[in-house]
Amino acid sequence: MSAPEQVRPISAARGWLGVAAITASLFVFLTTELMPVGLLTPLSESLDISVGAAGLMVTAQGVAAGLGVPFIVAWTRRVNRRLLLSTLLAVLALGNLVTALSPNYPLILATRLCMGFASGVFWAIGVSMAMRIVPARHASRAAAVVMSGISIATVVGIPLGTVVEAHTSWRTTFGIWAGLSLLVFLAVAAIVPSLPSQNAVSVREVFGLPVRNARLRTVLLVVVCFVLGHFGAYTFVRPYLEAEADATATFVTVVLILFGVGGALGNFAAGYTVNRSLRGTFVVGLVGLLTALLLLRATGDAETGAVIALVLWGLSFGAVQLSQVNMTLAAAPETFEAAMSLNTMAYNTCIALGSLLGGLLVDHAGGVTSVIWFGVALAAASLLLRLGTGRKGNTSADEPVAEDDRLAPTG
């Protein structure tokens, strides 16, 4: 098994600067996608739409990111990855600018759909690019650094956007993010080395991968269960804490920031442990996530218990998040980008489904406590599926699986 082929010659310093530029790309993509969450009220008032309609700005971009990515990755399979990422960032910068200047909601929604397609392709190629431009022994660490952009966006980016809006307007906020996207575009173009495309795979072959590759099929099922459970519960953390612990808005904000910090720490820790035992890192992370959910249910009516549960949840989520990317690589090393496009499709679709199912449970099946048990059930299913298939099964009809699913050396 081999990970994405490294680019040589390239200095280690330039490689890590390139990783930083790719991490910044993740930051602007994710904050752009989630920015409306903190701006729903001013958006709805300014555009004369309901809060629910304003929320479709997030849904539209997320769904587009999931459903469009396998096709676009396949159609661009021969495009140099630096050029492709630069193009995606240009689309993001232009989309944010159009959003800032748009006179009406339909144009904003259409723009968000276009940005969603760009965002989905980034998720499929970004980690692979980072792993190719550093020394082989540091590939997993590079992936961890890139994925830390998720926590940075959560802890810093989204609250920052809300603060900017409070002192200016939502249009100014998106205008600033257009400028940030442009700066990241320039950084990628200047720092990231040329990366010829690898693993050229057609659309038919992309969707045929899980049919032919039993190991990848299992990974995707594990991801589906994990994401459904995590986001089904996490989406309703605020109303849960408000109902069970009588939490204030300030407390919820602080505890969610601690969740993000925990996620970053778990991500960095997993960057070291996945090379020793990928399977073990994922299992420990899921056990921690299950423990956190049960702890939240048992002690979440007190602020101290809620803090401990959310920090543990964040740590565990960070470890699982990085592990599932490396599991995809381990399952399909020769077609990593194509496999990641399927991973992205499953992940983004399940974020929307998890939130939808969680909402139905909250409204019709026991209130906010029901989503915690929903998360426990799906996380447990993901864990059992991983434990049941971790050391057995075939990648294909004639290819045995490594005993412990270790991430193979990258060079």
TrEMBL record:
UniProt KW Cell membrane keyword: yes
Membrane topology classification: Multi-pass membrane protein
UniProt-listed PROSITE patterns: MFS
Segments passing through the bilayer: 12-31, 51-76, 83-101, 107-130, 142-162, 174-195, 216-237, 249-270, 282-300, 306-332, 344-362, 368-387
UniProt KW Cell membrane keyword: yes
Keyword set, alphabetical order: Cell membrane, Membrane, Transmembrane, Transmembrane helix
One Pfam family this sequence matches: MFS_1
Source species, domain of life: Bacteria
UniProt-recorded name of the protein: MFS transporter
UniProt domain Major facilitator superfamily (MFS) profile: residue ranges: 17-394
Cellular location(s): Cell membrane
UniProt lineage: Bacteria, Bacillati, Actinomycetota, Actinomycetes, Kitasatosporales
Predominant location: membrane
